[in-house]
Design brief:
12 helices; 63% helix; 252 residues; mainly alpha; globular
């Protein structure tokens, strides 16, 4: 039997600042290889079904966005911190993640999902040596939640979603999993064929990409250099990662 896998959860993130051991790094590479093997049949099937249209969508004309003290604070923090590219990416993450959650009949907390989507990259463009951006973002999100009058339990839920949204084996029906799925659509084109193309085009028109691909690749490289044993660094050392970002089916 191989070494026991450590769950890269919120407790792990707080305890380690998002730093992986050599064994954990090898386990993440194994997860990446497993995901690639699972994605290949899906990608081939998507090409076969290219003439068909995905059905995942939101009614953007009548979409109700949660309007609470937390979500207003999240929007303010995102707008004052993120570059235009990452800000609009965060809005699209919410739209794509929510559309997939509804397509998959997943229950979700509208307030937490919106706040987590807006704040998931809030620390990405300001790397700090030795601490993963998602862990620092989780800390800031927790502070924002407390200042908004949110209970400690809900603040922890929000922080957990942000700290673990890039963990590969996170449950897909959790806030972290839904944020991760929305991010994966926007960065890599994963599951974009499950979404209605008209909805995708309208989401991008509403929240333009502002050359997201080069901006996010540069931000990820700076984060990886600051925290070489973090999850971002491992993703960048995985050869397909940058290629998938470049090849994502979105015009810049």
């Amino acid at each position: 039997m191989g070494p026991k896998q450590v769950q890269l959860d919120y407790y792990w993130a707080r305890r380690t600042k998002g730093t992986l051991t050599a064994v954990q790094e090898a386990q993440v590479y194994a997860q990446l290889a497993g995901r690639a093997a699972r994605d290949l049949p899906h990608a081939l099937l998507a090409k076969v079904r290219a003439h068909q249209t995905g059905t995942g969508r939101l009614d953007l004309d009548n979409l109700r966005i949660p309007d609470t003290s937390l979500t207003r604070a999240a929007v303010t923090a995102a707008q004052s911190t993120l570059s235009p590219s990452l800000l609009e990416h965060s809005f699209r993450t919410y739209l794509f993640g929510r559309a997939l959650a509804e397509l998959d009949n997943s229950d979700y907390d509208p307030e937490l999902l919106y706040a987590a989507s807006l704040l998931h990259d809030i620390a990405l463009e300001d790397p700090v040596p030795g601490t993963c951006f998602s862990v620092r973002g989780a800390r800031r999100a927790r502070d924002i939640a407390h200042q908004s009058g949110i209970s400690s339990d809900r603040a922890d839920e929000l922080a957990a979603a942000i700290a673990t949204h890039m963990t590969l084996n996170v449950r897909p029906d959790t806030p972290a999993g839904i944020v991760g799925a929305g991010t994966a659509v926007d960065l890599f084109g994963m599951r974009v064929d499950d979404l209605d193309p008209h909805f995708v085009r309208r989401a991008v028109a509403r929240h333009p990409r502002h050359r997201l691909k080069p901006v996010v690749m540069e931000a990820m490289k700076r984060e990886a250099a600051a925290h070489p044993r973090g999850r971002t660094a491992i993703l960048l050392r995985w050869p397909p990662t940058l290629a998938r970002i470049r090849q994502a089916p979105f015009a810049e």
